[in-house]
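Subject: design request, 336 residues
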């Protein structure tokens, strides 16, 4: 299946695609398939709840949606969902924590997988379900087209076909809101590698929906980023990342600092050999943070150490990305 071959195989620099990644990395990463074989079988055996739901019906339902609780609320657990988008059936996994209350609007985090990866693999790779259960937010893992997202210059068939993946993310949130009590002021996006590129793009083009973003090992893949408002951003990148360079990740953060009119130098906090730098003094009170993991390769900080393979490592959990980004997200809901 090319499991985490993947999962982690990403895109090259912001000027090129994942196709340039070292073939040896992909070969080593493919060995991880056996580690998650059980998860793959479980995903294959689970039928989508409402396969083929037309996106127009979703949008119509959103326009007339009753107050919470919603009819047919999914409730806690893992749910496979699908909807029609641009003539294709698209799918996602929704993890709803046990503490979820159908009458209380819940925050939502979209967590996007890397190039060559899949939703169920991102569940394992990022380990975000634990944070969801602990903190009470819903986490959604969408599936990319042929294992890719249109993050601009990155990656794969989704970018080659110029798919409207920004529109897809909007449709997924609308679909989710027909079956869960969603807090529209607290919808966030993160993603690994190609998913990190995509979360940058969502910040640029859907800041009316996403309250903040948290790219992991991603870079800016589009030009002319023009967010509808100042946007809070926290990014994570390994200093030894060979697939998406640290310099490209840092350049994206520098762009967000400029877009948000941040002034002054950063406040730095050290975590072992790693560090987080935060720029405040930004428009509308937002902040921009870059967490540099050192040493760290093309992996998810605090995620699966088993799936951070030798070809894409080393692994580092000086900063747990799930904990850090949720603490950041909590501080930045959309304005009323």
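Subject: RE: design request

Done. Sequence follows.
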């Amino acid at each position: 299946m090319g499991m985490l071959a993947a999962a982690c195989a990403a895109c090259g620099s912001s000027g090129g695609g994942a196709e340039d990644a070292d073939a040896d990395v992909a070969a080593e990463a493919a060995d991880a398939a056996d580690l998650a074989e059980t998860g793959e079988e479980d995903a294959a055996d689970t039928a989508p709840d409402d396969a083929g739901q037309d996106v127009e019906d979703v949008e119509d339902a959103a326009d007339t949606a009753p107050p919470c609780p919603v009819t047919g609320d999914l409730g806690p657990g893992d749910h496979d969902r699908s909807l029609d988008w641009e003539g294709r059936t698209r799918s996602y996994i929704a993890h709803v924590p046990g503490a979820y209350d159908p009458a209380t609007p819940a925050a939502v985090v979209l967590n996007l997988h890397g190039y060559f990866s899949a939703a169920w693999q991102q569940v394992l790779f990022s380990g975000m379900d634990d944070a969801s259960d602990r903190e009470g937010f819903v986490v959604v893992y969408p599936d990319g087209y042929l294992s890719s997202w249109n993050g601009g210059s990155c990656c794969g068939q989704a970018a080659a076909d110029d798919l409207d993946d920004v529109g897809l993310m909007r449709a997924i949130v609308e679909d989710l809101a027909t079956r869960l009590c969603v807090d529209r002021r607290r919808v966030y996006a993160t993603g690994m590698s190609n998913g990190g590129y995509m979360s940058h793009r969502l910040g640029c083009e859907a800041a009316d929906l996403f309250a903040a973003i948290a790219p992991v090992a991603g870079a800016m893949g589009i030009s002319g980023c023009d967010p509808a408002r100042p946007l809070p951003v926290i990014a994570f990148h390994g200093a030894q990342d060979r697939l998406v360079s640290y310099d490209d990740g840092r350049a994206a953060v520098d762009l967000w600092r400029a877009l948000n009119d941040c002034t002054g130098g950063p406040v730095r906090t050290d975590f072992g050999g790693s560090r987080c730098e935060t720029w405040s003094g930004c428009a509308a009170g937002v902040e921009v943070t870059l967490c540099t993991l050192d040493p760290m390769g093309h992996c998810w900080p605090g995620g699966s150490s088993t799936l951070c393979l030798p070809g894409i490592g080393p692994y580092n959990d000086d900063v747990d990305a799930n904990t850090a980004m949720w603490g950041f997200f909590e501080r930045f809901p959309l304005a009323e």
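DSSP finds eleven helices and eleven strands in the chain.
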